[in-house]
């Protein structure tokens, strides 16, 4: 039996060898990073080295990196009423794009009545005119717009959004979890006030994330209280091994980014051409800039749940447009926000590539799709 093909990298990635080695070394340490003795200082050194690596990678200062348990916790920490910047008053409401991750759509610590959605275009890109209109409707707002969509791969106009938000006296949070390691990212250059990241999307371990706060942002209230860790922004003993693995993964991903991005763009084009040659497929957001590794598609009569199972039986791991935590395949809220009919949203399948994806993997996926197309689609 041939080895399985993994094409669900946007869900999670294999652990990079560099991250594994860093974690194994960290597991040998016995000190608490808050302790002042030699053992504690050695653990603290690993934490601070990783903090500096992530800060450098995204254009921030190390003191403004807050490690969390995951990207979801980082988003919850960022979405906080009362945040203020050097030239803005406390934010009182939250505006989120309609295609955000569920952890952002939940609104963090904002009450439901203070949360509003920003429309997106048919291509899945934030409607900047609608953003402008919503910003004039009330008091200063925190706006949350992801850097790259986890389903379609569409890159969002973060820099333009930041300018609009700041002119209106608001702040911008960017969920950059899918963008890190796949496309160049500098939060200072694009004007993000807060940005969130997750290790397991770039070859680091699961269970570690980070919030990066721009210089001059104040009013961030911790979700977890009780200790002075993470500049008193997140209580609890740091996950030293996870943080070390995160830092190693960031370093490896950034070093390989230009070569990986070029290679995945070529593989993505081969995959999309093959998908279209086999069936009358729609590839979402293919008319805008996207991550180089992401393909979300459907075809007439395709049911995502059946297709995901079919690919799996053929030895290829893919996902639906949106898979919830229970493991059930659900209609994509992203495609619904883009204006697609529910019947279309229920048929979306996502294939996402990574640094070890090879041409043979693409060929295997297309072979599986050819078999599925013959049996599943309307003719």
UniProtKB/TrEMBL annotation:
What does the sequence similarity comment in the record state about its family?
A: Belongs to the class-V pyridoxal-phosphate-dependent aminotransferase family. NifS/IscS subfamily.
Q: Per the database entry, which stretches of residues form a coiled coil?
A: none
Q: Which residues form the Aminotransferase class V domain?
A: 5-364
- Know the name of this protein? Cysteine desulfurase
Task: List required co-factors.
Answer: pyridoxal 5'-phosphate
* PANTHER family recorded: CYSTEINE DESULFURASE, CYSTEINE DESULFURYLASE FAMILY MEMBER
Give TM regions: none
Looking up SUPFAM superfamilies in the UniProt record yields: PLP-dependent transferases
